[in-house]
């Protein structure tokens, strides 16, 4: 080949709490990776992310040929990065995990705002579930309780390992769990036991809520931010009675998955890092053409309309187009 | 006292497009029919504001419709239903609206759909009508319902594959317009012929063996697209053939034939159900099991948040899904459900079915 540039694929996973990106090659080797907080500003986070990625790749002769986005801000970031594919996080996680653990049967994923379970058979997703209406038993609940007990959330797990008899805490609902926790603390239960109880409560909540009626079989891979908490991992092992694999790449699996999907799809569109210097603005307005009053969110690139969401019919988008034409 | 009050203006809540079908029947009871504005965010905001918090979402939509209709000048409202706690909703809604200061007459048809009773009721309210005219109008309305269901069923199964975006929906609107103007049974049969012909001629690119999904659950969120975030359209747009059994025709059919559907669904629901579980719960299980045996790719189960009959059904569905590795996606709708969450879940469901299908065809 005349230009022996390395072909690379970028996958970006923009979650509610954290934003992840990886750059992989044909052999699934990771050339660059990054994990930062979203801080409520997905566009800013992605720009920072691209800086980090570019820095990590600076010694290489490469070209990024496809980009995939996943996670809750996938559509917004997808149109900004001009992604070749935009896919939901369930598919991305499944594909990513299957690449590294071909024999996986169950994927537990507990993130900041949501939790899911993916059941795999014969290398294929056959069933999945996501938490429905409430955020009980997710990462944000853990971190708010850590704050209440004045313990850094990173040390949470260690405390739980030192517990001798975990306190019983109601796991059905965050509000009940919290009042239980306060009562038990005032009764004199040790922090260690309370934290162990909390980890058990999260696991029970997850299994009763998301994992209800699912065939949980090993190999089980546990991912998402909460998987870094050794206390929760221990509770899972005790309650299910199976061993659980926690992948050190677990937090990046969605990004890896979407990068693989982008590669397998075969559409190539050269990506450069110029996005970092472009000015993107998101503007929201209410359509007002009918009582629905759709809230329309538009991305404006250097004063020009790029994309919009949130409308139930075409009228709103046309309005937006005219506004920034 | 006011002159205006002498004109009887009747209104009843929306559900899908059935308002058009029941209009002639309502006209027997009043001088004018007021159609509530199409359901929008404003409807549900009004409904939620004045409803008990724990009432299920159909209650709130209905109440919103009533308020919007009353504001347009309606002075007779109709509510029907039954089967679950919906049967009591009319009483509560009447009280709420009266407390809000509206003056109106409230007609309730609850758990009581025998033609004779309905006819007697209409006669009582409008003694000048002959029974012949009443029966004729009931039949006419019934046939309108049947026609809407027939057209919509065809739409549901094909809209995902249309070549030019919007063809089907545009024709549905034309159809409803003409239906609204139809005067007698002969008109209906002409309409049926005309529009089935038109719809069949709309170019589609349907694969030989598309993904087929059955949609089951509570009847209101099944039939009112606004309340289920246009789930059927969303599925169709992804190229899924959507099948739905439950419709007003099916409900009426059950009423006229002594629950023949419900009875047969209990048989289909074996071994997961032995007894009826109320309202449409039995149908959800029976139909899901039947479609599974027919080789459908998956089921989507929808319900309003807190719907008891459907919660009952879910336990049986969970067991069925587990035993047969059959994909079922569950949705619970309430006023604040996020649309993005629904889209994500549908997309993942579609990906999953697609991958499964690919593997299955490769094995053959």
Structure explained in plain terms:
The complex is a heterodimer of chains A (325) and B (364). By secondary structure, chain A is an alpha/beta fold. Chain A has three domains: 6-94 and 255-277, ATPase, nucleotide binding domain (Nucleotidyltransferase, domain 5, 2-Layer Sandwich), CATH 3.30.420.40; 102-246, Nucleotidyltransferase, domain 5; 280-323, N-terminal domain of TfIIb (Single Sheet). Helix content of chain A is 36%, strand content 25%. Chain A has ten helices and 13 strands. In chain A, strands 3-2-1-4-5 form a five-stranded mixed sheet, sandwiched between helices. A five-stranded mixed sheet of chain A has the order 8-7-6-9-10, sandwiched between helices. Chain A starts with 5 loop residues before the first strand and ends with a helix. The mean pLDDT of chain A is 85. Chain B is α/β, with parallel strands linked by helices. Chain B folds into three domains: 3-129, Rossmann fold (3-Layer(aba) Sandwich); 143-206; 208-364, Rossmann fold (3-Layer(aba) Sandwich). Chain B is built from 15 helices and eight strands. In chain B, the strands form two sheets. A four-stranded parallel sheet of chain B has the order 2-1-3-4, with helices on both faces. A four-stranded parallel sheet of chain B has the order 6-5-7-8, sandwiched between helices. In chain B, strand 3 (76-81), helix 4 (86-99) and strand 4 form a beta-alpha-beta unit. The longest helix of chain B has 28 residues, at 131-158. At the A-B interface, helix 3 and strand 8 of A face helix 2, helix 14 and helix 15 of B.
CATH architecture grouping of the largest domain in chain A? 2-Layer Sandwich
* Overall spatial form of chain B: globular
User: What's the helix-strand series of chain B?
Assistant: EHEHHEHEHHHHEHHEHHHEHEH
**Structural Rg of chain A:** 22 Å
